[in-house]
Amino acid sequence: MRPLGFFILWLFGFSCQASIYSELSLSMNYSRNTNKNYTTGEQLELGGEFEYRQSNFDIKFDGNYIYDFVYDSNNNFSQATRDNYQSRALIREAYIGFFVLESYWSIGIQKTVWGEADDIQVVDVINPLDFRDFVLFDIDEYKLGIPMLKVDYDISDESSLSFITIFQYQSNQYPPAGSEFSFENYSDVDLEKWGKVEFGLRLNSYYFNSDVSLYGFYGYNDDPVISMDITGNKSLLIDKYAFLGASISRPIGSWVGRGEIAYFKDLLVNSASPEGTKIDRAQGLLGLDYRYIDWVATFQFTDYRILNYSSGLFVNKSEPLYTLSLERELLSGNLVAKGAFSYIPSQGTGSLSQLKMSYRPVPDVKLDLNLDLFTGRQDNIFGQFQKNDRIWISIIYFL
Amino acid sequence: MKKLLILMGLYSSCSFASMDATQVLNESRDRYDGVDFVSNVTLTTQIKDKIVSERKMYMLQKDIDDDEMTIFSVQYPVDLRNVGFLVKSHKESTYKEDLQWLYLPAFRKVRRISPKDKRGAFMGSEFSYFDLDKLRVSDFESKILEREKIFGRDAWKIERKPVSQDVINKSGYYKVVLWIDVERDIILQQDYYDAKDILFKRQKSMAVEKIQDIWTITHTTMENFIEKKISNIFYAETQYNLGMNENLFRKSKLKRGIIHSDVPSLTPITTH
User: What does the pLDDT look like over A120-141, one tens digit per residue?
Assistant: First the structure.
């Protein structure tokens, strides 16, 4: 008992001062399909965040509960959609962290960001995504926290090592058929498997005026392969793959250049074979940021190549994506305006134009306006939602 | 011959004045400000008497080897909580640009920022990132205009003009006139001029206190005559030479955020 007592005293560092932070927020969100002119969301959201922090120990909780009234009165959606999305509680993060052996250990549900890209996953392979609302402006809004142990060790002032062990596999989540953003041929995918352990390693450093990171990951495909037996029963298949990647960020005059490369070995993808097919994939990203007084413009290009492509695969051999965004603060920092344009030239072309404005009239209230416009052909990832243009308004009150 | 003598005399007086201005600026830049310091910073912007924006943050600074590391960690308002800004400034004699990183919790990512354009508003205020930089003497050609009294203090009045278009692009200023306290080496006021030689911004040191035997600016303002806005920075509870750990100034720490136990001698900043 005595060692446990000492351990608890050490953890709480009774002689140190603690920082306790708690925040409750209440949001009302309203969204509408502007093509077909019906309401897609009438949400009441209660958010809660709690932090207890000391110099050697911390606890964090961040979660929310959402009730969507749109399913009480609207028959545009399937029963499966109503079951999944009418009432939801979500833990975004819940973990404890502590310093031991000169390292910071955190265990629990967490989100981790790898790489230098904005809202594009090339080397950012740790957390899966929830596509319930398709692609939101900020990737963190639809990234799913998952149970993991993370150990961060500072090798020097400018170098750090991060080791991640994921205890529970969680796939990307795709909405059921009959949802506002359900994918044709790839709906109702949500697979959790406890004990499917994944490992990640990141080395971050600074060389020749550049921020450089190297990554390694050994885990399971985030998009499971859908397999049907002869009776039509669907099963979701996953298998292990290995990943190596690197990223760099460096100022070049008034610009900041960003780059990422990734290599996926034995990644399981959908194919004519019911078990799927393992492929090797190389992927890259080039990003450029330009700052002009209060404006920040960002351009990104990413593409991948399947190195052992065969005709039976249900994925493209390559899929280039271009993004352009512009951002600035106005009204003494109380209004943030962002615009983004994403374009995929393959599969008949498709684009997504997004506008996001956040206005803080008083410190405890925030108003958000989001606008998403889709164009393109039905078989393009953006074009499939050409009839799903969306306007989304939120009022957030920090209690 | 008479004209030549006048020209020679003019040249020698200019070069003498230039040398003196550089010396005064060097002394101001290099004046002792402790090995490290912390402060509770409040940044407000007002239009007439109405405060339209308020930010509260911890500011930490430490000399590490030949570099000066500065970190701002925002605590208020709630939706900007844990936004962090880390600057590594090299000694001017190295001719190296600063290194800057910004941590935005919404993205969970530390972003590199180019130091070539510092004209942007610092946290939405009338202070630009350039205004908060350490004085760089060689970026401007400087000359002493006169010695005059300002705010009741004896001061050197110095005119500075950028040495290159790059400096204009970085600072946004075509001319700066500043007043440096003769006795304390502190900048008391700076007037900023645009391309048409119009005075458009003015920075004033409103309050100066002696803390641990170091003259310290505790309140500074920036008035924008075009926008008709005034921003204030209040440096409260400034404390020097605390022996802060170098770990606080790492990029990895920027992600975890500065918390009160990192700066226990300051009053905690509350979010509401």
Answer: 999 999 999 999 999 888 888 8
Mean pLDDT of chain A: 92
Cβ-Cβ contacts under 8 Å, B247 against chain A: 154
| Of the candidates B135, B186, B126, B184, the residue with the CA atom closest to the CA atom of residue B160 | B135
Distances (CA, A) of B108 to A66, A117, B86: 23, 12, 15
Please determine, for residue A185, whether its predicted confidence score (pLDDT) is greater than 90: no
The nearest CA of chain B is from the CA of A119 a distance in Å of 9
Q: E strands of chain A, at which residues?
A: 19-33, 38-53, 57-68, 87-100, 103-110, 146-154, 160-170, 192-207, 210-220, 225-228, 234-237, 240-252, 255-269, 277-292, 295-306, 321-330, 335-344, 350-362, 365-376, 390-398
Chain B nearest CA to A355, separation (Å) = 17
**How far A65 CA sits from the closest chain B CA (Å)?**
19
DSSP three-state, residue B25? helix
Residue whose structure tokens are 């202070």: B127
Query: Comparing B196 with A9, which gets the higher pLDDT?
Result: B196
Mention every residue, 6+ apart, whose C-beta is less than 8 A from residue A335.
Answer: A329, A357, A358, A359, A360
For A160, the closest of B99, B252, B259 (CB atoms) is B252
The encoded tokens of residue A84 equal 């999944």
**Does the ipTM surpass 0.90?**
no
How far is residue A354 CA from its own chain's centroid? 17
- A138: chain B residues, CB-CB within 8 Å: 106-107
User: Residue B268: which of A19, A55, A331 has the nearest Cβ?
Assistant: A19
Is the CA virtual torsion B14, B16, B20, B23 positive or negative?
positive
Q: Mutation target for A interface from B73, B78, B128: give the one with most A CBs within 10 A.
A: B78
How far is it, in rounded angstroms, from Cα A341 to Cα B28?
48
All residues of chain A having their beta carbon less than 8 Å from the beta carbon of residue B172 are: 293
Tokens representing A26 are 């209440």
Burial of residue B77 (number of CB atoms within 10 Å: 0-12, 13-18, 19+): buried
- The residue whose two tokens read 């645009």 is B194
| Separation of alpha carbons B41 and B221, rounded Å | 13
Residue A7: predicted pLDDT? 54
The answer to whether B53 and B44 have CB atoms below 8 angstroms apart is yes
